[in-house]
Design a protein that fits this description.
The protein is of the alpha/beta class. It is built from 8 helices and 7 strands. The chain has a 7-stranded parallel sheet with strand order 3-2-1-4-5-6-7, sandwiched between helices. The structure holds nicotinamide-adenine-dinucleotide (NAD).
Length: about 250
């Protein structure tokens, strides 16, 4: 039997890249997947899910808008009667040296990556509490509280914030049968990272012990594990998926 049969999942930023792969993988494992994004590409991901025999719906959700997050959670619950899995994946990573960083640069990254995670989680948790079951999985980064990167002070702060948020929330929600975990990917091959050019990709590969970048599917399979019953005793964890990069 598929591991996520009868489960209902919401994935943010699922129009492309890692979020798209997560949505496809959860659907393959039997979940009904609510594919959300702000670009319209959420419809393309849903079409792919359907063409593979999966099911779900596509919704426009800007994670920075708390009202939209509440409306989305309500609509999903009214339609399917449950919300079992939330994947907070939407995020941006624009490089900007600290000495050039404006308030707007800082606020935009914190608002999408960290406040967005809070907004959607806050909208979904009351339904999970009611059903006494839930899996919240947020995509952090090795740039959060593991490694430092120049040009990413705002991003690192947002991703470290997700780790702290995850641990504190895991404590508060454990009594309701809800687990809360985070994943720290290393370098992942996505349309956005590929835009940096093949040279940059090759340089990255040389410093990664497993000799390759992560594919989005490597992150999706970790999400699928954390969402499954096999991970029912894991909460408050940060799982590093980086090909060994941060142990060097
Ligand atoms: N690619 C990597 O190497 C890497 C490494 C570590 C962590 N991550 C994290 O993984 C996540 C996905 O990264 P990716 O490389 O697939 O990125 P991506 O740019 O390919 O996709 C991100 C998606 O998020 C959506 N998004 C942006 N702002 C949004 C908003 N306000 N509301 C809803 N959706 C919004 C975009 O439209 C896009 O579809 C991000 O949180 C990123 O920080 C990526």
């Amino acid at each position: 039997m598929p591991t996520l049969k009868n489960r209902v999942a919401i994935v943010t930023g699922a129009g492309q890249g890692i979020g798209r792969s997560i949505a496809l993988r959860l659907a393959k494992d039997g979940a009904t997947v609510v594919v959300t994004d702000i670009t319209g590409k959420e419809n393309e991901t849903l079409n792919e899910i359907r063409s593979l025999g999966g099911q779900g719906m596509a919704l426009r959700l800007d994670v920075t808008d708390p009202r939209m997050a509440e409306d989305t959670a309500k609509r999903v619950y009214d339609t399917y009667g449950r919300i079992d899995i939330l994947v907070n994946n939407a995020g941006i990573y624009p490089f900007k040296p600290f000495l050039e960083m404006t308030f707007d640069d800082w606020y935009k990254v914190i608002n999408i990556n960290l406040n967005g995670t809070f907004n959607v989680t806050r909208a979904v948790v009351p339904y999970m509490v009611k059903q006494k079951y839930g899996r919240i999985i947020s995509i952090s980064s090795v740039a959060g509280n593991i490694m430092g990167f120049t040009g990413l002070t705002h991003y690192s702060a947002s991703k470290a914030g997700i780790v702290g948020f995850t641990r504190a929330l895991a404590l508060e929600l454990a009594r309701y049968g809800i687990t809360v975990n985070a994943i720290a990917p290393g370098a992942v091959r996505t349309p956005t990272t590929q835009a940096g050019g093949e040279e940059q990709m090759k340089m990255m590969m040389q410093v990664i012990p497993l000799g390759r970048l992560a594919e989005p599917e490597d992150i999706a399979s970790t999400v699928a594990f954390l969402a499954s019953d096999d991970a029912s005793y894991i909460t408050g964890a940060l799982i590093v998926v980086d090909g060994g990069w941060t142990i060097t």
